[in-house]
Amino acid sequence: MSFQIIRQDITKISADVIVNTANPKPEIGSGTDSAVYAAAGTADLLAARREIGAIAPGEAALTPAFALSAQYIIHTVGPAWLDGCHGEKDILRKCYENTLKLADSLHAESIAFPLIASGVYGFPKDQALDIALSEIGKFLLTHEMRVILAVLGREAFALSEKLVGSIDAFLDEHQVRELEHTEYSEGKDLAAYRRRRAVQQITDSARMVQTNLPEQSSGKPLEQILRSAGDTFQQRLFKLIDASRMDDVTVYKRANIDRKLFSRIRCKPDYKPSKKTAVAFAVALKLRLPEMLDLLACAGIAFSPSDPFDLIITYCVQNHIYDIFEINAVLFRYGQPLLGE
Questions:
Q1: Which of 258, 296, 303, 335 has the smallest CB count inside 10 Å?
Q2: Do residue 236 and residue 101 come from a single domain?
C-alpha cells in the first residue's frame, strides 16, 4: 500500500497493529514499552504479556491491543547496542522481519512502528533508521500493507552525518546563488538584470517543452495544433514504464503509490498528478534530471531553484539516490512533503 513517516506518539495512532519495543521479560520497561502499557491498560496488557513469557531478542509475539486504537500489539525485543560487532544489526533486522511476517499472517492492512532499539537500548539512530527503511522497503515490494514509522520529533530521527552534510552544502550553495541574484537585482543595473533573467527563463521554458512538441505548428489551424499537442502526463508515464521493462506493480511499489491510485492514473488520460506523486514516479523509474523535468512538464509542473523540496530531489537524482524510502527520510528530516500518496 504505502509507507509514511510521521511525527506522532505511537500510542495515538490508529492502525490494525501497533508495534511495541518490549522488555524481554514479562515486565514493564521504559520508553515506548512503558507508554504502550499505560495507553493500552497496564493490568490487562501485563496479564496478557505474562502468558507469553520471555521473548528472545529479534523475536515477535502477539497480544490484544486493549484500549489502544488497534486490534493487536506485536511485541518485539530489540538488541542492546554494544559496539556493532555482536550481531546487533542482524537482531534488529529480525525484529522488523518477524514483526512484519506476523502482521501479514493476521491479514493486517496497517501497522505502526517506533524506531526500534534507538532509545534506551542505545542503537545509533542513523543505523537504526537505515535498517528500518531497508527491511520495510523489502517487505513492501512483495506485500500490500500500510506501514507507518512514528517518531516523536525530528531530533529523534537521524540521517548519516555525511549525507546531511552534503545536502546542507548543496542547499547552502543554491541559497547563496539566489541571494546573489536578489542583491544584484537591487543594484544599479536592475533593468539589465531583469532582461537577462527574462531571456533565460524563456529559454529554459522553451527547452523544457521542446520535447513535447511533435512538429512545427506555424500556419496550422488552432484545432489541429491542439490535436497534435505533446504527451499528457499519463501518456508519457506509461511510455517510460514500457521503456523501463519494469512491470506496473514494481513501478507503483517503488513509487510508494497505492494500487488504486495507479489504476486511476491508467484509466484517465488527462490525469493531473500532484508534484510529489509525479516526482515519485520519476524516482521509481530512475530517471535522470532532464528526463524527470520533462515528465513533470507534461503535467505542467516545474522546479524552482529556491524551493528546498525541489533542491533535495535534484540533489538525490544527481547523486543517483533512487530509494524512495531513503529520499522520504531526507525530506522528513528537512520538513518537506514526502513522495508518494
A1: 335
A2: no
* CATH number of domain containing 113: 3.40.220.10
CA distance 288 to 290: 6
Q: Give the integer Cα–Cα distance in Å for 193 and 50.
A: 74
63 has which bridge partners?
73
Active site residues: 33
- pLDDT beyond 50 at 249: yes
Domain count, the chain: 2
Pairing state between β 146-151 and 72-76: unpaired
- pLDDT at site 175: 61
Question: What's the pTM?
Answer: 0.80
User: Is residue 216 domain-resident?
Assistant: no
Domain-located, residue 202: no
Domain ranges, residue 265: 229-333
User: What are the cell numbers at 303?
Assistant: 522546479
Same domain membership, residue 151 and residue 12: yes
Q: What is the pLDDT of residue 341?
A: 66
The answer, yes or no, to whether residue 259 has pLDDT greater than 80, is yes
Q: Residue 173: phi, psi to the nearest 5?
A: -60, -45
The number of residues in the chain equals: 341
**How many Å apart are CA 58 and CA 95, to the nearest integer?**
4
pLDDT tens track for 301-322: 999 888 999 999 999 999 999 9
Question: CA distances (Å), 130 to each of 125, 126, 176, 184, 197, in order?
Answer: 9, 6, 31, 43, 42
Helices (H), the chain: 32-40, 42-52, 88-105, 125-140, 161-185, 190-210, 222-227, 233-244, 248-254, 259-267, 275-284, 289-298, 308-318, 324-333
